[in-house]
Amino acid sequence: MFKKISLIFILTLAAMLLLVSCQRAASQAPLTSLATPTRTIQPTGMGQVQLIGTTQMIQTMTAVYKQTHAITPGVSQPTSTLVGTPNTFTLVPPTGVATTPAPGITPVVIVATATPGRPATYTLMTGEFVYCVARRFNVNQDELLSLNGLTINSANQVQPGVVLHIPQSGNPFVGDRALHPHPAQYTVVVNDNIYAIACFFGDIDPTAIAAANGLTLTTPLTTGRVLNIP
After folding, report:
1. DSSP 8-state secondary structure symbol assigned to residue 191
2. 55 belongs to a structural domain
3. What is the DSSP string of 83-98?
4. Pseudo-torsion of CA 173, 177, 179, 181, nearest 10°?
5. For residue 126, what is the DSSP state?
6. Number of structural domains, the chain?
7. Is residue 71 part of a domain?
8. Any idea what the Cα angle at residue 30 is, between residues 29 and 34, rounded to 5°?
9. C-beta contacts of 87-93 below 8 A and 24+ residues apart
10. How far is 22 from 42, CA to CA, in rounded Å?
């Protein structure tokens, strides 16, 4: 009987000790490592995709440009400029680099066309005078002077920029309209322009001279240049 009571007491005591031990183990906080873990933050989402795409595009364009623009050692090369917004870059040629027209394309110079018939008004240009306007449009010179309040003496004093009214009566110029024969060639002299040359020949329109030589009416003329006069 005494042995049974002793065994029960021992088992009860062992159970109590085991229960206390489990409670203490559960209540203790886990050990914390003193070492700080290292984390690497990687860009994710659309931002990473756009960054990679933009970088690859710039690298590709740079490689293509280097292949098409050979660099000679010791020679200073002009610098091109990369302009635009991300993903829409444009490579701009350096200043001073000549551009070559595409094969088979000929540059076209656009010149003014002659005024058909007789205009109602005409603005006198540098190098022109009243009588050459009468010859060009084949109008009666006396009617031109009268319509604009001019006389024979004052006609030569009309300055460039003055707007002349052109007679519409149909009466032609009295005398020879042409002062010099043409077709011909003409050698440019100092201070010449296309309007003055047209007046030199009398009955030719300045635009016809410009067209025959691939020029515009405002193209500066170099002394000694030979022009074709239609």
Report:
1. T
2. no
3. EEETTEEEEEPPTTPP
4. -170
5. T
6. 1
7. no
8. 115
9. 87/50, 87/53, 87/54, 87/57, 89/57, 89/58, 89/61, 91/61, 91/65
10. 43
Q: Is residue 65, in this structure, part of any structural domain at all?
A: no
Q: pLDDT tens, 152-165?
A: 999 999 999 999 99
Helix (H) or strand (E) holding 212: helix 206-212
The DSSP-derived string for 14-63 is: HHHHHHHHHHHHHHSPPP--SSPPP------SHHHHHHHHHHHHHHHHHH
**Six-digit token string for 154:** 């004052």
Range of the domain at 198: 121-229
The answer to whether 173 and 134 have CB atoms below 8 angstroms apart is yes
Residue in this structure with the two tokens 């007046």, named with its chain if needed:
199
Q: Is the peptide bond before 119 cis (omega within 30 degrees of 0)?
A: no
Instruction: Choose among 196, 164, 168: nearest CA to 180.
Output: 196
Per the CB < 8 A criterion, the answer to whether 203 and 138 are in contact is yes
Please, are residues 215 and 187 in contact by the beta-carbon 8 Å criterion? no
CB-CB contact of 111 with 217 (8 Å) = yes
Q: Over the chain (230 residues), what is each successive 10-residue block's mean pLDDT?
A: 59 64 48 43 44 53 53 47 42 43 56 71 96 97 97 94 97 96 97 97 97 96 97
- The answer as to whether 17 is a domain residue is no
| Residue 172 DSSP SS3 | coil
Query: What digits encode the pLDDT tens for the residues 100-117?
Result: 555 665 555 555 566 567
3-state helix, strand, coil in the chain (%, to 5): 35, 10, 55
Token readout for 9 is: 């007491």
Residue 137 is predicted with a pLDDT of 97
